[in-house]
Amino acid sequence: MKKLALILCLFAGGLLLMNAHYLPMWGDPASPASTHVSPYFIENAYEHTKTPNMVAVVLADYRSYDTMFEAAVVLAAGFACFFLLRSRARGKKGGHHYYRHIPTGVTIKIEEGGKLPAENSKVFRSIDALWTPYDPIIQTTCRCLIPFLQIYSLYVLAHGHYSPGGGFQAGVVLGATIILLAISHNLKTSLKRMSERTAALWSIIGVFIFAGTGLLCLLLGMDYLNYEVLAPLLLSDEAMARSHSILIVEVGVTMAVMAVMVWIYYNLSSAGQQDEGL
Amino acid sequence: MDPIMMEFSQHSPVLIVMAPFLLGMAAAAAGWANRKWAFPMAFLGLLSGLIAAIHMLIKTAKGEILVYHMAGWLPPFGIAYRIDTFSALILTAIMAVALINLVASRASAEKDFTEKAPAWYALYVFFVSGLAGMVATEDIFNLYVLLEIASLSAYALIGMGHNRAPFAALNYLLMGTIGASFYLMGVAYIYIATGSLNMTDIAVILQEMGPNPTITMAFALCMTGLLAKMAAFPVHGWLPNAYTFAPDATTNVMAALTTKVSIYIMIRLVLSLFPLSLAFDTGIIADAMVWLATIGIFAGAFMALAQKSFKRMLTYIVVVEVAYMVGGFWLGNRAGMTGAMLHILNDAAMTLCVFMAVANIRARRGADAFSDLKGLFQTMPFSMGALVISGLAIIGIPPTCGFFSKWYLISGGIEAGHWGFVIALLSASIINAILFFKVFEIAFFEVPAETFGQNSREHESDHHTHHGLPSLAMAEARISMLIPLIIMALTLLALGFMTGGIVNLFIDPAIPGQVL
Lengths: 278, 516
Description:
The complex is a heterodimer of chains A (278) and B (516).
Chain A: H1 2-20, H2 32-35, H3 38-49, H4 54-62, H5 64-85, E1 97-101, E2 106-110, E3 124-127, H6 136-158, H7 167-184, H8 187-193, H9 196-219, H10 238-269
Antiparallel strand pairs in A: 1-2, 1-3
Helix pairs in contact in A: 4-5, 4-10, 5-9, 5-10, 6-7, 7-8, 7-10, 9-10
Chain B: H1 3-9, H2 12-30, H3 38-61, E1 66-69, E2 80-83, H4 85-113, H5 117-136, H6 140-159, H7 165-194, H8 199-209, H9 213-230, H10 238-245, H11 248-272, H12 276-280, H13 284-305, H14 310-330, H15 334-365, H16 376-379, H17 381-395, H18 401-415, H19 419-445, H20 453-456, H21 479-507
Helix pairs in contact in B: 2-3, 2-5, 3-4, 3-5, 4-5, 4-11, 4-15, 4-21, 5-6, 5-11, 6-7, 7-9, 7-10, 9-11, 10-11, 10-14, 11-14, 11-15, 13-14, 13-19, 14-15, 14-19, 15-17, 15-18, 15-21, 17-19, 17-21, 18-19, 18-21
């Protein structure tokens, strides 16, 4: 069976290689891909949308419908992880629990069967079973890094009209900051900053901003996602309305990507229990 | 119609995808607000999808072809949806199947997933809107994006099943991803050769261009990918486990729709994107596909014979049905294609019906091994009635719809002189008959050793009749599962009676004139 698979793979690879010399040369300006639709985008993108970054225009306007569903795929991934992994069963790992006595800073271990402090106790705080000692260097470094990373992500988002960037990248950077917080401190700290409910709702709202913008265009009497019709609402002419709408949908994408990344991390790192984890 | 409705109705090609999708997100959000709202939102979403589909069905029946330009950009620059008679028919089938199963599955979904039920509803609706988009879109890359969302939701829906479901879902994920990658590579080759992603535009370019090895390669890649996605014979391995272990609520809709939509896409690509001469002129590709289907029919049917539980047996029948459609289509004549296209519709209906009947049995008896089916005709007469009708449809006995599509397939085979395929079809019918009558026999004549959980209480008086068989108290499935099932069973008969109209109005216009 393995040999058969190998032969099949070699056969398929050979076919692809044999076909390779029929393909146009790399970067050939006369190839169909560079002569059919590209010139239209290159010539008209700025005029249509007043946005210098053509990639952003193709992504968020000419082919905005694809991009919306890419954001939706990300959302579906978040829900898939939640649906498959999330469980409410708590404390199954090992059986013992660690708590910190806040007034003294002492860490105590409660063996299996021992009486646990109340969930909302002000004196004892539950800490991870795989608890590693407090590391001031890592925590301080990350605390310094996170705000700058977050500002940078906003820059990536806002500057998507002019340079490489945009919603997906900004969302990844922003999501990474929350995950960095969880890694450098612990899952509970980041859950306190951004709960699972927030992550889930943000991811839905993010995609909804994109899809809802499209719906608004439809309700105002134009085709789905045809931003032109939003011009009166955005107090601008049609081309600028497209430019502004690109930013609006990119904000939606950023929110969705960021929230889904964090949400998936929560579920993966704690095996769906969201109490403790890396 | 008043002007506002007129205005709104021209958007039905996009609303069929976006209305379910947006309301599916609302159902998801309900999970964190008020769980009670999740089902109504999902229901409303699929209902509005169904309304949009029926609206398009009526419009296309009048000879209109609906084209919708996303974001107002004309193709090939923007993404367009294009709905002809056949796509409208399939869209209606998708939405109707999904809606009926949603209603029927509500109770079991709420019970199985409790707090996560809203996520199930959301993924279910995402899955369905992905499939609908795949059918409606005219853009080959948009098709891939929608394929992604439908598949991703499908993996999650399957993974939540029992036993080895996570493993089966992983297997499906690997096969599905490989299939999708092949398709995507095909799209890349098409783009390299033509510079376009719009099906109609590409078809025009290819007509002017003449034979081109890159396009042949793209054709092979797309078809290979789709074969894996539709579980055609040598690459069907993921299907039986995935569908057996998935929750019943998921299996019902997935068995009815996933493979069918992949076949629809294969048909659409061959008929309206690639030049027909590429697919049929040499005869080598078409012949190979029909022989593959012939072998697939035999292999699937024999594997079905070897199964010991009902649901698992049915998953192999799904593999057989896929081979019918692939073979029928690649016969390359009008009768065969009509049969394949009609069978997409009929098979979606009868697969849903038979799986829903099994879901009812499993809900009552908790198992579906053949030995668990004893005495079912007495305890669940209505579910078994529906099962009999769907069984007859799968075997292909008139007046159920299954007979008519099979009739077209067989006459297509005879016309093409492809006797292997004809013999395979006939033997598959016989094997299906053996399979189903074995089930009916067990359920009708054999007596359960002990009365089953639910009805033992009602059965204390225990008076035996004098006909030889002890009478068992009725223990039907709950009414919300039974009514959708009966509707589906009646649909199978109705589709049978409407065959002529469906073929003339919706299928015939979709087959190009060159196909004789």
